[in-house]
Write a structure and sequence with these properties.
By secondary structure, the protein is of the alpha+beta class. The chain is 33% helix and 15% strand.
Length: 137
């Protein structure tokens, strides 16, 4: 059964308004699709690449942080396990379901990443810094 085995432990990279977060401890997720995913401490993420358009962000922003970190990690070219884009997107959907996100929230977010995040797939490595306003996955 898919589930998170650890909590999200992260801090802002720059307290002056940067929206990049750094994991202070590994985030571990057990997936039924790809097995164990361990996002390492030190990994940088923007938590979720939802456009900051007021209505869209109000409806869909700040809803799936843990799930988005795993998705961002799986989009890196050297993640372990190394997965396809479809697998990474499906793990994102699976993780949202595992944490009890409502059907309409998880499917809207899944369609968003499946349709628009392809430009970021395997463009960065795990140790590359996240970039504010950049879609990581």
């Amino acid at each position: 059964m898919a589930k998170f085995l650890s909590c999200l432990d992260a801090r802002l990279k720059d307290a002056c308004g940067d929206s990049i977060w750094i994991l202070d401890a590994p985030l571990i997720y057990q997936s039924d699709i790809v097995g164990r995913v361990e996002v390492p401490a030190g990994f940088e993420t923007d938590l979720a690449s939802v456009p900051r358009i007021p209505i869209i962000f109000e409806l869909w922003g700040n809803r799936a942080h843990r799930e988005a970190v795993v998705h961002d990690y799986l989009y890196r070219s050297d993640s372990v396990p190394l997965v396809t884009k479809l697998q990474a997107d499906r793990v994102f959907l699976e993780a949202m379901k595992a944490t009890g996100k409502a059907f309409y929230i998880r499917w809207f977010m899944f369609v968003g990443v499946a349709g628009f995040a392809w430009l970021s797939f395997h463009r960065k490595t795990v140790n590359d810094p996240a970039v504010k306003g950049h879609i990581d996955g």
